[in-house]
Each structure stands twice: as C-alpha cells, then as structure tokens.
Amino acid sequence: MISPIGGKVKKLKHSLNFGAGRRKRFDSLHPFGIRKRLGIGRHRHCYRYRNNRQNSMVKGRETVARTKKDRGFTTAPHDMNEPLPENISMPVLVTGGSRSGKSTFAQRLAESLPGRRAYIATAEVSDREMAERIARHQDQRGSAWLMTIEEPRELPAALRRVAANYDIIMVDCVTIWLANLMLADDTRPDAALLARVNDLTAALRETTARTVLVTNEVGSGIVPENRLARRFRDLAGLANQRLAAAAGSVYLVACGLPLKLK
Predict the structure, then answer these.
(1) DSSP class of 207
(2) What CA–CA distance (Å, rounded) separates 193 from 98?
(3) What φ, ψ does residue 174 adopt, rounded to 5°?
(4) Is residue 212 in some structural domain?
(5) Do both 65 and 105 map to the same domain?
(6) Which domain holds residue 195?
(7) Which of 41, 56, 71, 155 has an alpha carbon within 20 to 30 A of 115's alpha carbon?
C-alpha cells in the first residue's frame, strides 16, 4: 500500500524525469539551461542574443541621453582641463566633498575673470594639520591674487568691505565659517546661525564684485554618531540650500570633475 505522501513524491519525480515536459523542465532547472537563457555558454545562438541585448541597451542609453539633452540636462560633467564656460551668472557657488577638486575649480574659475582679485579665507590655524592645509592653498594661489583676507567669523561684513576695492572675490569656505560660528558659542540656536547665512546671501546680492564661494557637501555619508556633528551636517545642508538659491550658477565637483547644477 502506498501512502498519500509517498504517492505525491512519486508523482513529483515522474513529472520531473518523464513525459513530454522533461526537456523543458530540465532546461529550466539545470545550471546549463540557465546559462543558455542568459545568452552565455557554448550555444549557437548565444552571441546573437548577447549582441542584440547590447544593441538594445546602447539604444536605450542614447534615448535617455537625447531626452536629457532636450530637457536641458548635461549628460556628462565638464573635464577639469577643458576651457571654462563663458557668460557665467554671478555669484557662483561651488560645492563638493573633501578632496573633490572644488577649490581648484573655483580658483580656476575666478582666475579666468579679468580684474583685481581678493581671497577671503575662513580657516584658522588650530593645529599642525590645518597649518599645512592653509600653506598648501597659499602655494596654489600664487601671484594672481592681490590680497588675502583672513576672516573666520564676520564673513558678510568682510565681503561688503572687500567688494568696494576688488572686482573678483573668492571665499573658501562657507562650511568652515559655519563651524567657527558654532564653536564660538555652542549655546547659539540654529535660527541665529541661519540668520547669519541670510546676512551672507544679502551681502552677495548687494555687492557688485563677482564672487565665487566654496562650500562642502557633508550630508552624503553615514549619519554622524554625536549630536554636534549631526547638527553641523543639518545646518550645512540648510546653508547650502539658501546660498544655492541666491547664486546665479552652482557647480558640484566630484572626482575632480565639475558638473553644472544651475
């Protein structure tokens, strides 16, 4: 006597190994059959399948590229060594991660403009590492800059003051300025710090000098562990949004390649 369960097992074996559907089921279960359906292996039709698949993917990418171009999107970032774009709307905001090439691009952009140039640095020499960073930036600037102003906290006032005597101003960078304000008084509420950012955007609108600002994109990584770092991340993101809204042109730099966002 065959039990109901045993009968089901026998029927399952029979359906997998015998009958008209044997080859179809074997092809779907066997690893070599899977390779055949994916177009890889020693099958006569695999190269044709793979070529057709690649051609359809290329056509799809071309369609997406045409669609982006029609809608006004850039399909690829500018090369750092390519000629800089002309007729750039001022002011310019350049953002990016650490060692992304944002300061180099912003400096090239400012040096391509004719006129008297001034550089506003917001960093302070707090330790040996920061001193090395400042020295490296100073070496990169060279003699193309007539004046370097160090202003770690009163950035809007410095911008208004320098704009009276210079045609091009580069500010490097906004996020260090924001960190200096936070560390100077950690009891200051977020609204007060964002009010300082609003004052900076007002100074950008008032000045007649062509201004290039450098900032950092700090919110793309993991959530910081401590509260102060999370607060800084959030404030930097809000500050960048307000500055980008006030800017005439915005560039994102990654891997040394600037991509125009606005």
Answers:
(1) -
(2) 23
(3) -70, -40
(4) yes
(5) no
(6) 92-260
(7) 155
